[in-house]
Each structure stands twice: as structure tokens, then as C-alpha cells.
Amino acid sequence: MEKIIKEKSQFLKIWLRNTYGVKRKSQTQSTTQHSQENSEKQENPPAQVLKIVPEHIPLQEPESMPMQEHEHETAMRECIEAGLFDPQWYRETYSIDFEDDFAIFSDYLTKSRFSPVNPSPAFDSETYLRENIDVFHHQISPLYHYINNGKIEGRTHGPAINRWSPREILTPERTIGEKAKTLKIAICLHIFYDDFIDRFAQALDAFPVEIDLLLTLAKEEFTDHARNTLGGHPRVNKTEIRIVPNRGRNFGPMLVEYSKEIKEYDLFCHLHSKKSLFSGKEQTQWADYLTEYLLRDPNIISGVLNSFAEDEKLGLYYPTTFWMMPVWVNHVTMNVPFIREWEKALDLPPGTEFISYPVGGMFWARPEALDGVIREGWEYDDFPAEPLPNDGSMLHALERVLGSLVEGKGYKQFFYYPTTGQFTTDQSYTTSSYRGTIEQHLPAIQAHACISFDVFDTLVRREYTVADYAKLKLGKHLCEQGMVDDPHDFMKLRNSAEFELRKRANFQGDVVIDDIYKELGAKLGISEADADGLMRKEFELDLEMILPKNEMVELFNHLGSVGHKLWVISDSYYTREQVGLMLRKVGIAVPYRLLVSSTEQKRKDNGSMWAMIKQDLAQEGIDRHLHIGDNVVADAQRPGDIGLTTFHILHPMEKWQALGFPKVLRGSDALDEGQILKWGKLVSQVGRNPFIGE
Hints:
By secondary structure, the chain is of the alpha/beta class. The chain is 43% helix and 13% strand.
């Protein structure tokens, strides 16, 4: 272990010179385990950080200024004297035997470029990077930047924040154990970008055991480089190389080429080259984060392998979701139909909206825990051809069903949470960003001149939660009058009429409730006047059950009273006037612009409404706009894709799930009136305030 520490310390000194090229010294790698010293940390931070980033001195490229080692040591002493770097605290929190204080400082500087580790209770790395996004994009350690530039520029920092405290803690040894040494291990690497050959080889330098490599390469010309660099690595026993087509992203090549071989191992790790270009330069922080906690850090990897060796019920491991992803990233998003297909193929029950899964598709697993996916017989034609959308495909769905597949076979998932340095089986991290209060978010929300809101489950809620309950009640009413035989049959007929109209319009624009009932009237053989009466009855039944989301309505009225421009945007077959009546009922009392899909013939969930909104914002000269809503796709993902700022809040059912309550109102139960009456009102009450912990 001492030899590894010294080797890593020397390597990091070289790395720091090349990376930081400014005024500091060097780095060592290691990892994290947390003592329970949280008394000085802030509790219940805002769920999402929204801040207008001020103009600052342009950052210099790190390579432009040579760095001297003694200057780096000077900086470390400066941080210690300022109370921002506490070597003993860091050593205890991230429980590694460091060579000296300089090695501790180096470890922090390395990891804090891409991971939310803190140097002391006095400095929160994540907050500094979120509030100074230019520092994040330049991949500079937050404390390093603050000492060199931020303090001079007037940028601020805050104490370490306790964003999430995992329960169900695992405490494996952080040096490789004897049982773990006996595991037969394969590492499957898919290389699309050839510079990752060197990155992965470097990540294996301190790997605690020897492994076999199963490589898939996107190009033939990568072969010699891969064979010489990875195949000749001292930690590698055996190497297999396959040249693969650009089909199936990272999963297809692994499953087609190596499913049979993987079954011969006790454990396998799957990684792939991941890049993104943002702000004009290559962004590797997500890839660095995953590589660090899946491959590079011997302290963490020893903990992972020891955990698998000691507990045969652990089936899948990955670090908690990359902290700079959107708060809703653990949601199923637009993948629901593809997920349902996987669930049917793998004989899994329907999952929930927020799920724990390896975001990015990289993980460790027991082959038998993924039986059904790890199987022979895969062909490249089983996977969709490129180009693929950014989200919403069978491959995006596949990574989202891995956790439920493992659990369906009686295994457990476990995770590493870098901020506290703990291994855990606690899945509540998936919604931990929704903790907080409206008051905590108010200053950030008010920083925007124009604020738009969704309607249903954002400003208003339904008394019994279920959106179709008004249709079911109307069906009961018609059943009592002898017009239909079964209320559920009426509801199916009514929804079928709506679908037929959408299909007839080639799913362009939107439908309006008047036209739905004209179509339905023809199916029922009644007059247009009678059909119009049924339409009004459905709306009246729904309006009767509309209640305010009190805190959100108060927020809306407050923003209007202090001069903010307010827009309300809804995807609905109700008319603009009908939606306006609902808003009036719940107490909306300030001026606003109302945009309803049935009137505008544009929808949020397909992006057409947002294209119009973006154009309107530009025409009105509004450059600080924020949208608030509960639907991940329509209110967050779609507008975010075109550069609009969003603030996602939890739907009542999602908050119910996040609080750990039983699964209710799903599948056939969602249309069972007994279940609706039993659970619907309670779910609606729980979800009235969208934040957890309020």
C-alpha cells in the first residue's frame, strides 16, 4: 500500500504540472469514507440551484502558465491558515492512509475537478462549482480557483452542505481482502474514441488485482494501440479484441461479442469512452467521475470487490448519479414505452417514475444477476441503427431496467456516494435533490424577469389525484341513466375518440374537448347538443375536484405582486376559458398570459410550444426566463433541450414514492374507484407541496 501511495504521489505531481499549470503543486489519488462529523454542515439545502452567474475575469487556460512545486505547497499552507483545508478532517472523512498533508491536498485537487468532495467543513466544493459554472467547464478544482482567482474577483464560498445522508451503510475494508483476490474478473471496455485507450490504461495502474480485458473497438486502426497499451498492461492477464460496427452504442458490442465469455467470470465491469462538447471545449468530468469510482481509485475498487466477495446478494454496483446532471435524471423520462417492452421481455413488474440505475451505462455486476440481458444470441440487428435521439430508445431504456432486473432476481444494488465517502444500498439519492422549501428557492426564482408555470399538478391538483377520474364519474352517471352499460367502457370509448382525432391530425397540434365529444357523440349515436352537454358535464365534474397547490399558488401571486411577468403554459384538451376557470377557482389573483395547447395548436411535450415560447421571449427581449412544472419531459427535458432554464418539481405520485409509501394507483388500480377513493385523496394531500421535508 505504501508503494502505491508513493507511486501515485509522484504521478500526480506530474499530472498537476500539466493540468493546473498555474500556481500550485501536486496530487495523489485515493478515495472516500465519511466519519459522522456532520454537525458543522448545513442541513436541507435548496433542491436545485438557480443562479445568474456574474461576469468575472476570463479564466486563463491552465497550460498557459508554468507551475512550481513550492508554489503549490505555499497554496496548501494558505488554505490551511484560512481554515479552508483541514488535512486531518479530510483523512478521517475519506479514510485513506495518505503519505503526508501534501498528498491529501493533491487528492482533493484531483477529485474536486469532477467530484463533490470537500477539503474541510468550511468549504463546499459543489456549491462553488454550481455558482461558478465557468470554473466547472474549465475543469479547475474549486478551492484552487478560489484561492488563486475567486477571492480576488469577489466570488464567495460557503460551508459544507449535507445534501443527503445515506442510510443502510456498507463498511467494506478499503484494502483488498483475501476472498476478493480469488474472484475471476473481466473488464469490458468499449472504445469509440481512441484517446480513451491511454486513459483506461492509466486508470488501471493501481488496480488492486489482475484482470482479463474484453475490448470492443470502433475502428480497426485502434488495434495496435489497444494491444500494446492495454494488452501489455501489468494488471492484465488476457486480452480479447473485437472490431465492431457502430450499432448498439456501448451495450450492443458487449452483448453481441462477449455475452458467452462474461458468464465465465465471477464479476465484470463495463465501461466505455464518453465525451461531450460544451462551452467550446471537451468536457470529460462525467467520464472522469465514473472512471474514478469504477476503475481508477484502488481504495474504492478494493471496497467494491470486498463487498461483492463478502455478500453474495450484492449484484450491481455503480457510484451515485453524476452530481451535475439534471435533478430529474433518475426519472424514466421519455423511455416509458421502451421500458415496458424490456419489462415484458424480462418478466419484470412495471417500475416507478424515479429509479436507481447506472446513468451513463457503466457498472460492476455479477453475470448471473443480469441473466436475461447477459445471454447468448444477441445480434447487431437487435439494436436500433444510428443516429439515435438524445433520449427515448431501447438502449436508453436498457440501462434503466438493469436495477429492477437485478432486484427481480433477488440481488441488491449498492452505490458509492463520493461526498461522504460511503458505500450504501440506500436508493433515496434519486430524489434527494428535491429536499428544501419554497423560501429557500425564492431568491433564485426572483432573479428571473419572466416566470412561467405549468397548470395541472403544479398550480392545481385533483382531489383524488387520478386525471381520468372525472371521465369515470361521468361514465357512472351515464350508466345510471342507461346510456352505457359500464363506466369503464364509456371511458375507453371517450379516450378512443380523442385518440382517433389525434391520429387523424397525424398527431400534429392538439385536440379540443368540444371536438372530442362531437366524435364521441357520433359513436354513441346522440345529437351534437347532447354531446355538448356531456362535454360540459365532464368539465364540471373535473372542476369540482380541482384544488389549489396552496404554496405554489401563493408563490405565483407573490411573484405577480412584485412585478414579475407571469405566463401559464398547459398541455390540455380543455379550452383556454376552461383552464382559466380552474386557475380562478384555486385563487390565482394576478395578471398572467395563458397559453393552452388546444388553442395554440402546439404542445410542450413534443417541443412545438417551447419553440414558440423561445421565439416570443426573443421578440420581447426577455433574457431571464424560468419555467416551473412537474412533468419531466414536457416541463424540464423538452425546454432544457433548446436552452431554456427550468425548475422541476415533484408530481404528487412522485413525492409519494420518494417518501417510501406503498405503490398505489398503478396499472388497473388507477381506474379502480375503490382504490381511487382509498388512496387518491391522501396522495393529493401529500403532494400538495412539491418539496420533500416541507
